[in-house]
């Protein structure tokens, strides 16, 4: 039983205070103990297969091609040197590695065209790989490329080009039938860190694409495809940017950018105004990976903090569905059929690829198992401490369910001085479950 922690104001009668306690406690218990899943059909993840690559640094960029007859995954195995990465092509249906293409530098982009063909960037070179499932062949399409991404309709290729000490963002028309880059146009100079893991993301309608800034670069670059204009969007609250991704909230196109070093938050940028809209304090350190599912309603993210978070983003808030302690993440990708989530890990967590089945429930109310969490002092105005819970990831929500604070449990307690007066919920998750408590800040 979670204790009710309410201290009535001096002008409130005991009966009024008691009624308020009952109403608020019922509301908060309902909010935390149950997840309404009407329109929110993803309820969790289950690892169904793991591909291990011991002796390597990490599993990096990845893509998939899943249809009624094919279940193909392409991903990079990084050795850490930046010169000997390996491209792996794996058939999930047959549980068989179809090919390993080694020794061509850093794998910094991969895209399937169909079940027999893909594009990839290795060692600053754009390669066309054909004959998947048969006799694989490769050909060079362009050189000097640091990163690339195909548009969703596969008509355009966005890229970062490095030449003679200068770095540019550009686009090329691509003919999937012939495998020919028909035109290559540079849009403008890029300030993204060329020594970083550069990521490119297209919006769902292919009208924008974005590039992360990298380490110690608190900005993202957003490109308007129709006008061919590059916009540098500065962000606050994080000092480095990783993993850009586009999504819609209430009909408005927005972009999420993961952060680091000391603040692994998600910055949300409104595309219409090209301004920062909000910041979500999801993790404490590098958030290397951030991806949206094919519907744009769900977000998976993770990085150095060794947690994988799964969120629903259709409304104005990011609603947490579940978080998992998994190890240091390097990459995340929803398969093209929207049935699996792929997660790649760094060596500290075992250089591996997890294939996770997305667990769904069409319409239900699902209970969340929870244990009581004792907080003290309470009510509080500054710092609160937890009793009997250790080695936990702590999250603080307001009464509307909005995530306000994320940190690891420490003996220093939870600093809530910046929170305004009101009712708050604390959720501490460790290997024993989710521990839920609440407090009132006066």
Structure description:
This protein is mainly beta and 442 residues long. The chain has two domains: 14-36 and 367-441, Immunoglobulin-like (Sandwich); 42-365, Methylamine Dehydrogenase, Chain H. It is 5% helix and 56% strand. The chain contains one helix and 38 strands. Strands 31-38-37-34-35 form a five-stranded mixed sheet, covered by helices on one side. Strands 2-29-28-27 form a four-stranded antiparallel sheet, with no helix packed on it. A hairpin with a 2-residue loop joins strand 37 (422-430) and strand 38. The longest helix has 20 residues, at 14-33. The radius of gyration is 23 Å and the shape is globular. Residues 1-40 and 363-368 have low confidence and may be disordered.
Helix fraction, binned, reads under 10%
Structural class: mainly beta
Q: Under the CATH scheme, which class of the largest domain?
A: Mainly Beta
Overall average pLDDT = 84
Strand order of the largest sheet: 31-38-37-34-35
């Amino acid at each position: 039983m979670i204790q009710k922690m309410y201290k009535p104001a001096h002008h409130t009668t005991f009966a009024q205070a008691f009624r308020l306690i009952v109403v608020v406690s019922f509301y908060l218990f309902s909010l935390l103990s149950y997840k309404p899943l009407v329109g929110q059909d993803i309820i969790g993840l289950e690892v169904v297969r793991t591909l291990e690559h011991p002796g390597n640094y990490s599993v990096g960029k990845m893509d998939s091609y899943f249809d009624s007859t094919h279940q193909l995954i392409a991903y990079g195995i990084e050795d850490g040197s930046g010169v000997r990465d390996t491209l792996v092509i794996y058939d999930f249906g047959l549980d068989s590695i179809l090919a390993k293409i080694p020794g061509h530098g850093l794998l910094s982009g991969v895209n399937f065209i169909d079940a027999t063909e893909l594009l990839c960037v290795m060692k600053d070179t754009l390669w066309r790989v054909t004959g998947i499932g048969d006799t694989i062949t490769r050909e060079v399409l362009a050189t000097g490329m640091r990163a690339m991404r195909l548009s969703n309709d596969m008509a355009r290729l966005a890229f970062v080009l490095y030449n003679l000490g200068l770095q540019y963002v550009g686009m090329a028309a691509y003919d999937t039938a012939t495998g020919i880059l028909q035109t290559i146009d540079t849009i403008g100079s890029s300030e993204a860190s060329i020594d970083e893991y550069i990521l490119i993301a297209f919006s769902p309608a292919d009208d924008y694409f974005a590039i992360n800034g990298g380490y110690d670069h608190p900005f993202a670059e957003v490109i308007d495809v129709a006008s061919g204009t590059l916009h540098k969007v500065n962000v606050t609250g994080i000092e480095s940017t990783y993993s850009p991704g586009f999504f819609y909230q209430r009909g408005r196109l927005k972009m999420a950018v993961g952060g680091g070093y000391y603040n692994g938050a998600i910055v949300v940028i409104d595309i219409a105004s090209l301004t920062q809209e909000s910041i979500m304090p999801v993790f404490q350190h590098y958030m290397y990976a951030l991806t949206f599912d094919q519907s744009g309603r769900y977000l998976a993210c993770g990085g150095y903090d060794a947690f994988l978070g799964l969120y629903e983003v259709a409304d104005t808030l990011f609603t947490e569905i579940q978080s998992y302690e998994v190890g240091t993440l390097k990459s995340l990708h929803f398969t093209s059929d929207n049935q699996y989530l792929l997660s790649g890990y760094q060596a500290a967590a075992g250089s591996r690829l997890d294939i996770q089945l997305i667990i769904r429930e069409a319409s239900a109310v699902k209970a969340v198992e929870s244990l009581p969490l004792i907080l003290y002092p309470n009510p509080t105005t500054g710092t609160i401490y937890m009793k009997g819970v250790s080695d936990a990831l702590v999250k603080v929500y307001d009464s509307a369910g909005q995530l306000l604070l994320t940190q690891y449990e420490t003996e220093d307690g939870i600093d809530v001085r910046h929170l305004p007066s009101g009712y708050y919920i604390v959720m501490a998750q460790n290997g024993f479950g989710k521990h839920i408590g609440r407090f009132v800040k006066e």
